[in-house]
């Protein structure tokens, strides 16, 4: 059995002359937790619906277990979905909702009872069998929806922003639970969200999407530390992005100064974009800092202060610090060469990977 | 997307119904309106419609329908509003609709007794010194009984529209300083316009074409378009003339529906 | 001041209710009149009720009315469900609104026009006037009402429910039978009962399309009314009204007891 469970081969989807997915290719491996991350309208839900079989690709092929499934309807695919609005059947109670798929497959009554009980146990809903859906809270409905998907023992569970309707605290709890559930079951989860924190916290692999194409894929740390372009950098966490010039390997100039960095493989004097994450910036006195800035505003965020500063060239610098500063004062910013990340303008994922490989050797 | 197919399958009996019982009857009415009593082509039916007899009948029909609709609205709106404020309003509403489930001819017939010269209303009028009145077989009895029959169709949509209003809108209006009356004028009334529109259509159009009540209680006079159609189809057997009146009625109806939609927007 | 207003409001409602029920009460009172007409109450009697139960002609008419109502409501509900599903699944908005307009034509059409046009239709098609033509007409004018009662339920149903059912392995037919139909049950019942009432209540259309030898209650009452109705009919309508009243109130109290939310503890 190959390790690849889903393969998209140059898949394009067009709705009413509008290209929602543009020539997308990727592979999904067995037993991992994948997240499709992107703003609304980026095509992430379309990918999910293509896998589930609710829509057919306009062009290209989709393979499940190396079988082309373009023409296979949703009800015959070994895939189950947890819907954004849970899509629980209001006329059925909890037990019958979970049993729905098994009843369709004409599983014996005894086995249905056992498997539903197991599934409900898995999502911590033992004893809720006879409840009506209307009697369940949002978090409980969520669990019923998950139980209803996993009870069919699918090879793949698709989750379409299932946490978006929950409040913050419950959402964080469910993130842990989902991650843990996936690891216990050992089946592949494909999770769709627009919440970058959720994606970073739960996934083995993240696909960042924008405007119908995959911008970047990789582990959460890869994507956070080495965003491929401005979109990814902006979308994953907060970043300071300024214009700069690559003077030579390991030497970059921005904010009218020259700094050491650890990036290579650029042309001499190539214009680039420079990223420094707000938590990588240290505040010192104006004299000792690498960049002098003026504090514009300060917000208390609980764990840290979010401080917004401007340098002499009108570049905005966001700093996360546990220390408080005085608004209007001039301070200095300090950072390590490793904190600087350089992005080539208009570089694709393939080119990016090639360049990284080249200088890692 | 996949659900499209069972839609097509389900369409078949429904499509047959549309063709056979919606489109075909309309076409047949239109076609018949150009036939004389012997089945030859003629435009005479339409020409006759412009004679004083029919012009007066059309005018009367619209007049009566307008009066009945206006009275229904004036009496029915407060009823709908007050009903929505009672406890157990659903129960009251059901009780309000219940009489309309009794065959309306029977109720009309009962009014023959109630409003008759020896009926309780006249007995009451005599007792308080006003003296007996001729209450039957005139315009009053026609308008009264028509209103009686159609008023639930005015109350129901208005009640539903009032029920749909989010209560916080009324609190908001009060909070912003509006009095009860202003709240009604500026918030409740505008938000129930849809209900009034449905009520208007549900009362005006059927009244325009009433015929059995006219026969029973308005003194057997042919005074509305409805009676005229019945007369031509079932008494004189002049289907052509009847169809021509029906065509006019359909056009008038379409105009009324279109106009109410425009005005209420 | 507040009290006065409330008193005024209550008496207004009371007056309207009194007028609404006046003819029904009037009919009921005179059903016990030994005088034989609705003028002048003589003595209390059960005579009319006794006569009613021995009147086979009236019994057959009543049976006709019920059979037509039940049959037409059932068939109209089935076709109406199909129609509502068809309209609901059409995605092209132009096509959809055209179908809806066609659907609503019979709802807004006056009875006289429906009756007259159906009379022409049956004559052209060579269908003899009687039970069959009455049944067909009742089915025809009930279908759009059923559609209108079901469509809002379909609209309210989240499309993801259908996706979910398919996702869990349901075939198209299973999606309909296990998810859609149970979901719209209340709409189907509402449609069925409205169709039933419309059929029981209909006079005008039946009057046009019925032939000799087949009568429904409404048509019979009309033909009798002009000569003066026997108090048997009063007795019959009193019984019908009492049954309706008991059914409706019974249903109301049962349904409110089950769901206390429905009572609406509103001010």
Give the helix/strand class of chain B.
mainly alpha
> Distance between the terminal alpha carbons of chain B, to the nearest Å?
34 Å
C-alpha-based Rg of chain B, rounded? 23 Å
Shape of chain A: globular
Number of domains of chain B: 2
Q: Which class of secondary structure composition applies to the elements of chain A? A: alpha+beta
Elements of chain A, N to C (H/E)? EEEHEEEHHHEHEHEEHHEEEEEEEEEEH
The H-level CATH homologous superfamily of the largest domain in chain A, spelled out, is: P-loop containing nucleotide triphosphate hydrolases
Task: Describe this protein's structure.
- Chain A contains nine helices and 20 strands.
- Chain A has 361 residues and is α+β, with helices and mostly antiparallel strands.
- Chain A has two domains: 4-225, Rossmann fold (3-Layer(aba) Sandwich); 238-360, Beta Barrel (OB fold (Dihydrolipoamide Acetyltransferase, E2P)).
- In chain A, strand 7 (156-160), helix 5 and strand 8 (188-193) form a beta-alpha-beta unit.
- In chain A, helix 2 packs across helix 3, helix 2 (94-104) runs parallel beside helix 4 and helix 3 (109-122) packs across helix 4 (138-150).
- The longest helix of chain A has 18 residues, at 168-185.
- Chain B has 265 residues and is mostly helical.
- Chain B is built from 13 helices and no strands.
- Chain B is globular, with a radius of gyration of 23 Å.
- Chain C has a domain at 60-228: MetI-like (MetI-like fold, Orthogonal Bundle), CATH 1.10.3720.10.
- In chain C, 44% of the residues are buried.
- Chains in contact: A-B, A-C, B-C.
Question: Topology of this protein?
Answer:
The complex is a heterotrimer of chains A (361), B (265) and C (267).
Chain A: E1 4-15, E2 18-29, E3 33-37, H1 44-52, E4 59-64, E5 67-68, E6 79-82, H2 94-104, H3 109-122, H4 138-150, E7 156-160, H5 168-185, E8 188-193, H6 196-202, E9 205-210, E10 213-218, H7 220-225, H8 230-235, E11 240-248, E12 251-254, E13 257-260, E14 270-276, E15 282-284, E16 291-300, E17 305-310, E18 316-321, E19 330-334, E20 341-344, H9 349-360
Parallel strand pairs in A: 3-8, 3-9, 6-7, 7-8
Antiparallel strand pairs in A: 1-2, 1-4, 4-5, 9-10, 11-12, 11-14, 12-13, 14-20, 15-19, 16-17, 16-19, 17-18
Helix pairs in contact in A: 2-3, 2-4, 3-4
Chain B: H1 4-32, H2 44-49, H3 52-85, H4 89-97, H5 104-114, H6 120-127, H7 139-164, H8 167-175, H9 180-191, H10 193-208, H11 212-217, H12 225-235, H13 239-264
Chain C: H1 2-30, H2 47-54, H3 56-89, H4 93-108, H5 111-125, H6 131-156, H7 159-167, H8 172-183, H9 185-201, H10 204-209, H11 217-225, H12 231-258
Helix pairs in contact in C: 1-12, 2-12, 3-6, 3-9, 4-6, 6-9, 7-8
């Amino acid at each position: 059995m190959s390790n690849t469970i889903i393969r998209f081969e140059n898949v394009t989807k067009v709705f009413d002359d509008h290209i929602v997915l543009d020539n997308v290719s990727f592979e999904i491996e067995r037993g991992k937790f994948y997240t499709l991350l992107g703003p609304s309208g980026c095509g992430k839900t379309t990918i999910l619906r293509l896998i589930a079989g609710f829509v057919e690709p306009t062009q290209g092929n989709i393979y499940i277990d190396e079988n082309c499934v373009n023409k296979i309807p949703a009800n015959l695919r070994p895939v189950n979905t947890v819907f954004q609005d849970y899509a629980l059947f209001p006329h059925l109670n909890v037990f019958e909702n979970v049993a729905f798929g098994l009843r369709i497959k004409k599983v014996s009554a005894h086995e249905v009872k056992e498997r539903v009980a197991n599934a409900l146990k898995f999502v911590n809903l033992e004893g809720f069998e006879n409840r009506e859906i209307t009697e369940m809270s949002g978090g409980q409905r969520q669990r019923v929806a998950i139980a209803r998907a996993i009870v069919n023992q699918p090879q793949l569970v698709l989750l379409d922003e299932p946490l978006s309707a929950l409040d913050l605290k419950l959402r964080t709890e469910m993130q842990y639970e989902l991650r843990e559930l996936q690891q216990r079951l050992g089946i592949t989860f494909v999770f769709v969200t627009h919440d970058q924190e959720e994606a970073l916290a739960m996934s083995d692999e993240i696909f960042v999407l924008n405007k119908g194409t995959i911008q970047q894929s990789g582990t959460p740390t890869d994507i956070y530390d080495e965003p491929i372009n401005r979109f990814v950098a902006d979308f994953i966490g907060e970043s300071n992005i300024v214009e700069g010039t690559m003077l030579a390997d390991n030497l970059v100039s921005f904010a009218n100064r020259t700094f050491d960095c650890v990036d290579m493989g650029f042309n001499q004097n190539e214009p680039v974009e420079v990223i420094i994450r707000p938590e990588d910036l240290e505040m010192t006195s104006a004299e000792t800092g690498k960049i002098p800035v003026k504090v514009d505003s300060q917000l208390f965020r609980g764990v840290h202060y979010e401080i917004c500063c401007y340098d002499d060239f009108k570049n905005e610098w966001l700093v996360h610090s546990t220390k408080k500063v005085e608004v209007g004062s001039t301070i200095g910013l300090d950072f390590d060469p490793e904190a600087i990340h350089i992005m080539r303008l208009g570089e694709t994922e393939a080119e990016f990977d090639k360049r990284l490989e080249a200088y890692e050797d | 997307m996949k659900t499209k197919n069972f839609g097509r399958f389900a369409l078949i009996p429904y499509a047959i119904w549309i063709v056979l019982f919606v489109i075909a009857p309309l076409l047949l009415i239109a076609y018949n309106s150009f036939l004389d009593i012997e089945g030859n082509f003629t435009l005479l039916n339409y020409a006759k419609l412009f004679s004083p007899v029919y012009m007066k009948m059309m005018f009367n029909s619209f007049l009566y329908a307008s009066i009945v609709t206006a009275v229904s609205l004036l009496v029915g709106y407060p009823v709908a509003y007050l009903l929505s404020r009672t406890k157990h309003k659903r129960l009251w509403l059901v009780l309000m609709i219940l009489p309309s489930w009794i065959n309306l001819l029977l109720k009309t017939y009962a009014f023959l007794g109630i409003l008759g010269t020896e009926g309780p209303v006249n007995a009451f009028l005599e007792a308080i010194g006003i003296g007996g009145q001729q209450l039957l077989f005139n315009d009053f009895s026609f308008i009264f009984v028509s209103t009686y029959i159609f008023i639930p169709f005015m109350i129901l949509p208005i009640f539903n529209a009032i029920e749909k209003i989010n209560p916080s809108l009324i609190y908001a209006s009060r909070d912003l300083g509006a009095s009860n009356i202003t709240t009604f004028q500026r918030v409740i009334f505008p938000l129930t316009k849809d209900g009034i529109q449905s009520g208007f259509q549900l009362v005006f159009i059927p009244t325009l074409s009433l015929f059995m009540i006219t026969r029973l209680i308005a003194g057997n006079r042919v005074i509305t378009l409805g009676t005229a159609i019945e007369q031509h189809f079932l008494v004189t057997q002049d289907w052509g003339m009847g169809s021509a009146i029906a065509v006019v009625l359909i056009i008038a109806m379409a105009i009324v529906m279109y106009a109410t939609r425009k005005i209420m927007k | 001041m507040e009290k006065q207003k409330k008193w005024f409001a209550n008496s207004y409602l009371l007056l309207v209710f009194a007028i609404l029920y006046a003819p029904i009460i009037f009919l009921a009172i005179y059903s016990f009149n030994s005088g034989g007409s609705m003028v002048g109450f003589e003595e209390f009697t059960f005579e009319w009720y006794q006569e009613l139960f021995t009147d086979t002609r009236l019994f057959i008419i009543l049976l006709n009315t019920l059979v037509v109502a039940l049959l037409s409501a059932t068939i109209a509900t089935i076709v109406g469900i199909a129609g509502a599903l068809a309209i609901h699944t059409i995605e092209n908005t132009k096509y959809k609104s055209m179908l809806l307009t066609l659907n609503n034509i019979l709802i807004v059409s006056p009875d006289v026009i429906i009756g007259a046009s159906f009379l022409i239709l049956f004559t052209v098609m060579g269908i003899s006037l009687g039970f069959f033509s009455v049944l067909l007409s009742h089915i025809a004018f009930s279908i759009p009402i059923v559609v209108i009662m079901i469509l809002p339920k379909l609209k309210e149903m989240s499309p993801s429910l259908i996706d979910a059912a398919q996702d869990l392995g349901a075939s198209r037919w299973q999606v309909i039978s296990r998810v859609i139909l149970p979901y719209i049950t209340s709409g189907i019942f509402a449609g069925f009962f409205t169709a039933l009432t419309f059929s029981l209540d209909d006079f005008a259309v039946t009057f046009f399309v019925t032939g000799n030898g087949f009568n429904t209650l409404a048509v019979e009452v009309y033909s009798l009314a002009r000569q003066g109705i026997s108090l048997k009919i009063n007795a019959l309508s009193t019984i019908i009204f009492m049954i309706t009243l008991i059914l409706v109130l019974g249903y109301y109290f049962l349904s409110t007891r089950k769901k206390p939310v429905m009572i609406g503890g509103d001010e």
